[in-house]
Amino acid sequence: MKANSGLKKNRTKIQMVLTALVILSVVRQFFLGNYHNMFLGILTLILFMVPQFLDRKLNVTIPPGLETVILIFIFSAEILGEINAFYVKIPIWDTILHTTNGFLMAAIGFALIDLFNRSDRFSIKMSPYFVAFLHSVFQ
Q1: Predicted pLDDT at 62
Q2: CA 37, CA 46: separation in Å to the nearest integer?
Q3: pLDDT tens profile 87-127
Q4: What are residue 123's phi and psi, to 5 degrees?
Q5: 21-60: string of b/e by CB count within 10 Å (b at 16+)?
Q6: Could you give the CA distance from residue 111 to residue 8 in angstroms, rounded to a whole number?
Q7: How far apart are CA 94 and CA 77, in angstroms?
Q8: Distance CA 107, CA 78 (A)
Q9: How many CB atoms lie within 10 A of CB 98?
Q10: Are 68 and 51 in contact (CB under 8 A)?
């Protein structure tokens, strides 16, 4: 139980740092007069709240490590990629994010299977290996 509490503290620290960086970016874009980028920053802050919304309203707990990766991915795509023009400055930035997104979607899929397997609402228990095998066969 104590280890889980430590993970939540780390998740909160990382989320706080990323949120602070996004807020600084939004303020910077306001003073630069880039209202489109300011809107992207606000949208990023809203996206940052989705995991907490899922946790509170739907009682769906996202593993802290996965949530951290999701937040870093959102930050990398929106703040670094769009607002700070990493898509232009770093030619392979798009490839990096698309590759990362593939691994992220697989991790989310495995986390969902784990969530379904632990839930009493679902009568079917699935093996993540079986689902990965089926996905590779039917892909």
Answers
A1: 77
A2: 14
A3: 999 999 999 999 999 888 888 877 777 777 777 776 667 77
A4: -90, -20
A5: ebeebbeebeeeeeeebbebbeebbebbeebeeeeeeeee
A6: 17
A7: 9
A8: 21
A9: 10
A10: no
* CA distances in angstroms from 16 to 8, 19, 67, 102, 107, listed in the order given: 12, 5, 13, 26, 23
Dump pLDDT digits (tens) for 52-89: 888 788 777 777 888 888 899 999 999 999 999 999 99
As given in the structure block, the two tokens for residue 64 are: 């802290």
Q: CA 135 from chain center: how many Å?
A: 22
Helix (H, G, I), strand (E, B) or coil at 92: coil
Type of residue at 129:
Y
The answer to whether residues 42 and 74 touch, using CB atoms and an 8 Å cutoff, is no
Q: CA–CA separation, 125 vs 131, rounded Å? A: 11
Type of residue found at 94: D
C-alpha span between 33 and 26 (Å, rounded): 10
